[in-house]
């Protein structure tokens, strides 16, 4: 689900009305035109500084207007993480969650179906915010050097900013592996370790290259990646991505 800037603006405005308490609200899909609408709700929690509880009357109001899709709430501290209870409630009610952090002006999205958290600030734009850039920035923060090839820079300079990037630059990921010779292929793909680089073939068609998606394993059965037409996400390496995983590469410093 792509959350528009208009919806984020309404959530931000609601949160900033009272920065001393957590706000909460609902995003629902209208029955007639399937548009997403925001309904700010009252926080019925006893301790509103650290908890939220959507007022039942407001919940009923939204459900009468359309199908409830998302519950949102704010944090008034620097904490940008969903709590365990947030995730459990999201899965229990089968509703995605949005978290807005007032201090950092950041938005995060929890998708209950995949147990995944997304940073809903950077949409996929090839050469600007894509799967290669995300892995590079993540590994660099871990003091693991990863350079991007000239083919990626060429794509950026040519403004090839679309989801079909691999049709114009089919060797971008292979070139990335080639220019980073300290990354060696892991024979057993099931033997994953933290910071392993993951090369996927998501589309698997005669028009797609050997690799058309890039990610990194962060441990505990989860991957960090930036899918096409989505936001940077941490999610489980479930059946879908296991089936699409082609090769795994590991940084070996002494090689």
Account of the protein in words:
With 255 residues, the protein is an alpha+beta fold. It folds into two domains: 5-119, Cytidine Deaminase, domain 2 (3-Layer(aba) Sandwich); 131-251, endopeptidase fold (from Nostoc punctiforme) (Alpha-Beta Complex), CATH 3.90.1720. 27% of the residues lie in helices and 27% in strands. Strands 2-1-3-4-5-6-11-10-9-8-12-7 form a twelve-stranded mixed β-sheet, with helices on both faces.
Features:
single chain; endopeptidase fold (from Nostoc punctiforme); Cytidine Deaminase, domain 2; twelve-stranded mixed sheet; alpha+beta
Question: Can you give me a brief rundown of this structure?
Answer:
Helix content is 27%, strand content 27%. It has 8 helices and 12 strands. It is elongated and about 60 Å long.
SSE layout and pairing:
Blueprint: H1 5-17, E1 24-30, E2 36-41, H2 56-65, E3 66-75, H3 84-93, E4 96-101, E5 106-111, E6 116-119, H4 131-141, H5 150-157, H6 165-168, H7 172-178, E7 183-185, E8 197-200, E9 213-219, E10 222-225, E11 233-236, H8 239-244, E12 245-251
Parallel strand pairs: 3-4
Antiparallel strand pairs: 1-2, 1-3, 4-5, 5-6, 6-11, 7-12, 8-9, 8-12, 9-10, 10-11
């Amino acid at each position: 689900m792509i959350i528009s800037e208009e919806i984020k603006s309404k959530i931000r405005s609601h949160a900033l009305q009272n920065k001393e308490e957590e706000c909460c609200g609902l995003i629902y899909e209208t029955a007639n035109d399937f548009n997403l609408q925001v309904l700010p709700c009252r926080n019925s929690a006893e301790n509103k500084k650290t908890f939220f509880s959507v007022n039942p009357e407001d919940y009923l109001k939204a459900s009468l207007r359309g199908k409830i899709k998302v519950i949102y709430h704010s944090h008034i501290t620097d904490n940008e993480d969903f709590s365990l209870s947030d995730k459990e409630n999201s899965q229990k009610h089968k509703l995605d969650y949005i978290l807005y952090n007032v201090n950092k002006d950041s938005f995060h999205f929890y998708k209950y179906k995949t147990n995944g958290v997304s940073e809903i600030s950077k949409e996929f734009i090839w050469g600007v915010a894509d799967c290669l850039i995300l892995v590079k920035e993540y590994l660099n923060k871990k003091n693991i050097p990863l350079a991007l090839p000239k083919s990626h820079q060429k794509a950026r300079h040519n403004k090839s900013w679309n989801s079909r990037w691999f049709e114009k630059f089919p060797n971008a990921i292979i070139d990335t592996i080639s220019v980073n010779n300290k990354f060696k292929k892991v024979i057993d793909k099931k033997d994953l370790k933290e910071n392993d680089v993951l090369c996927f073939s998501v589309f698997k068609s005669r028009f797609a290259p050997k690799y058309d998606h890039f990610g990194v394993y962060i441990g505990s059965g989860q991957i960090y990646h930036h899918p096409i037409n989505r936001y940077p996400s941490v999610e489980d390496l479930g059946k879908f991505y296991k089936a699409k995983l082609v090769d795994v590469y590991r940084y070996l410093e002494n090689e």
